[in-house]
Structure formats: structure tokens, C-alpha cells
Please model this.
Amino acid sequence: MISLRDLQRDLLGYALGDAHVGERPWIVTNGLSADQRLRIYRNNAVVGFEKAMQSTFPALVRLGGIDWFNQMARAYQRVNPSRSGDLNDVGGDFPAFLEDQLSGGEYEYFSDVALLEWSYQQCLCESAVLPENLDHLALHLQEDLSQLRFQVADPTRAIESIYPLFEIWNQNRSDGEQSGAIDLRRAASRVLVIRRIDHVEVREVSAPVFTLLRAFAAGSTVLEAAAAVTETCRDVDFSDALTRILGLGVLVGFQLTAIGE
Amino acid sequence: MTMAVQDAMRVSRSVPASAGIGLRAQHQNELLSTKPAVGWLEAHSENYFSDAGPHIDALLRLRETYALSLHGVGLSLGSSDPLDRAHLMKLKRLIGRTSPAFVSEHLSWGRVDGRFVNDLLPLPYTQESLTHMISRVDHVQSALQRTILIENISTYLQYLHSDIDESAFLTELSRATGCGLLIDINNLYVNERNHGIDARCFINSIPSAAVRELHLAGHSIDRVDRTEILIDTHSTPVCEAVWTLYGHAIRRFGARPTLIEWDSDIPSLDVLLGEAHKAQSYLGAAHDLAA
Model:
């Protein structure tokens, strides 16, 4: 008699599309072959996975069409089967998978859209972190900026794309009318996904603001972040960029110590 | 185990022996704004594991109005892999946040070597599986510090080496662990049509005291070659044959909290409430009979 472990390995392998050919005398046929019965489970596994992916990546479904999307979802499932009892967890590696598949082609921007959609879903499921009242910050700005570090709210995601990502996502995120063709060569896009108390906000920001925020998130001091911005963005107005970041409400605190103190 | 059973008896009173509906995202706002008269709500546990977001927010608000049951689909109790402790802890946290009257899972598995199919696959009904399930249910009830309900599933295959009746398997699982049973009437009907099991005989052989909840749902009918096979899609109204079987079940078990499940091609809330209203009329007749 086949053990429970061996039976489960065989059936799950079949359902996930592994190359499992062979007799399965331990399955009652009763009008249908073991293969035909197992194909029902394989179909359920695929359809359930596709539906979960569709609900996480609605803009990609619109962009590529449902047939293309399902084909990609099935290919993704074969190399990245679900590792969780919660189907909401299955899309995390999809952006990287699409990047591998589409890199250098006319649809390579799809992987950036996937990253934005996955970030949105993740942010949606996280608690908002309320920004600290930074009114008293002015006092410290007179002090040594090499000691001042900002803390960025954890749920915030920052995505950089060489394509007009925000516009692409914004035009395809719902079933509404698209406002027109998008020139993919138009401009690079830097997008923040921010968890607000009652919603998730997606907004485009300037290169200096984006660079500054990334530097803060990486633990840089204000001085180090300013150097990073000056290096990457010409003619930047640093104080303007800092003011804009403060207005975003994504800085949830600051400290005046060197790392390790 | 005795304490866990007492706990379940205490909280189960908060779900009335009336008809409830499965909570689906499409209906959340309408439920919150109109608060229709329905006995209780059942939520899929995994959809509410997150810290925050519109779904868990809505569930917590609905919990103020309606009694709640949590129904899991991802614990893979019957898997020969180790139990997913992270999943179990998420469930425990959700239970702490929502105080459900019932927490239920399935007599099934869906994971091996860390890979999931996220479906409910059948176990062979053998002593090996029974011993395994008893150990798993004991473990989960101990971790959650409460009894859980275990649901019979619909299946598209049977194993030649199964040597225990499904009803005897569930009865012994309940006796050994103190877990309650959630009997899905549509699943019984699907299995009757797919495998020729006797659904009434199943119902007649389950001890009434173990049955805490009933499920009703729709199915679809597929053809493979010339053979008709019923698929448990939860995408259609409850069919007449299932209503008839439900009538038999509540005559046998007495009135029990009964859920209308509808998970695909989800209709308007009115349609779902209409199905619940129909179930309520069956329950009313059972109450009258008992009186």
C-alpha cells in the first residue's frame, strides 16, 4: 500500500504539472481513468492560481489581455509554485519573473507595472504609520547635519522606471476609459506607494525627492543624502526637495545620533 | 480537551441556529451600509490575515453587528509536511482580533515539500490518515486553545486502499479530539453523484451532537468523455436535490447554523440573501417540528 507521504508527493506533483507519468493503481477509476481524475485537480490548481494573480495584477491583465496574462501566470506557477496556504502571497516574485521573460523587448515595462501593483497590494495590507510632528525639527536643522537621520514609514515603497510608469498604471488600473496612447519614450518615472490611514496613495515624485527619500530609507544622514542628490541631479534645490519630502508625510521620526551609538 | 470543548459550547451559542452568508469583498460596503437581517457571517480566514487594509477593517466593523465564523482553506491539516506554524499563528491572531463563534477547516491536504496547490485534496480514509489527522487536530486545538470544526470535502477521486467510511472517519476524528463537524450538504451530493456514495446514509451515521454547522452551495456539471462529473465551484444557486438533502439533514441533526457559500460568479447581495432566506424557512420548519 502506498504511504500517505508518497501518495501526496505524487498527486501534488501531478497537480502542479511535474512530469509524472505512470500507473496509479491506488486510484479508483470508476468510469474515468486516474489521469482524467487527476486532471480535474490540475485544472483547479491552475485556475485558482490564475484568479489570485488576476486580482493582484489588474492593470497587467488590462495591458496584456487575459489570455497573455494567464499564460504568464501558468508559466510563473511552474517555476514559482505557491509556498503558502494563503493565495494572497503568490505574486511576490512575478515582477522579477516578467523581467526575465520580457527584458529587451517592447513589453519590458510590464515588469515595472507588476512591481508597482505588488507594492500596492503589500502596502494595502500594512498598517499606516503616522508621521511624527516635525515642527520642532527646525531647531535641529541648525545642528550638525552629519548626525541627523530621518526614519521613513515602513509601508512606503519607492519604484524607479525608465518608462512613464505612473501614467501607464494610472490609465490601466480600472475598467474605465483609457485617456489615450502613452509615449513610452516620454520620460522616466519615479513613483512612491504610500500607506495612508484609509487608503493607499500612488504618486509620482521628482528625481531629487526620490533620491533623497531613498537615501533616508537606507539610513543616510541628511548630509550624505544631500551629497547623493547633488551627485545624481544637476541644479538641484536641496531645501526645496527636503521641504517637499516633509510635505509627503512619509517621515515618521528623526534621530540625531550616529549609527551605532 | 474538556476545557476546549466547554469553550466551544459557550461561544457557539452566539451563532444562532439560523442561516448565514459567506462574506465576500464585493458585498462588504453594502453589508456595512444596509445591515440586512441575516443570522451571521462566515469569512475565509486567509483573506483577513493582514495587519490592515479595507478587508480586515470591514470585517472588524461587521463583527460589531453580526456573529462571525472563520473558515480556513489553507492550513492543509492532512498534509504529511510539518504543520505550517506561521499560518497557524496568523489564524490565532485573527481569532484574537475577531472573537469568532466557530473556527473551521477541512478534512483535506494541499501541501507537500513546502509546495501548495491551494486546493482541497482528499485523504485516503485509512488508519494512517486517521492517526495523522487526530494528531493534527489535537495540535491545532491546543495551539488555538479552542475546538475547531472539520468539514467534509467534495472529491473527484477515491483511493482503492481507503478502508474506513468517510462518515466513520469523521465520527472517530470528532470522538478522539473533541472537534466539531461542519457537514457540507452540497459536498455530500457532489460525492454521491461522482462516486455513488449514499449521502443519506452518511448523514444518518454521523452523531448529531458532533454537528455544529452546515454548509450549502452550488456546483457545476462537467463532462469528461461520456461521464458526467460534478465540480464544487460554489458558483450557482443551491440545487433542488441539495435542498432536499438539507431537509433530511436538519430533520436528523436538528436546526443548525447554516451557511450559504458562493465564491465564484458572485451574485448581488440580494440573491445571496434570498438563498439564506430559503434556508431559514427550512430551519423554521425544523424548529416548528421540534416544538
Observations:
- Chain B is about 45% helix and 20% strand.
- The first helix of chain B runs from residue 2 to 12.
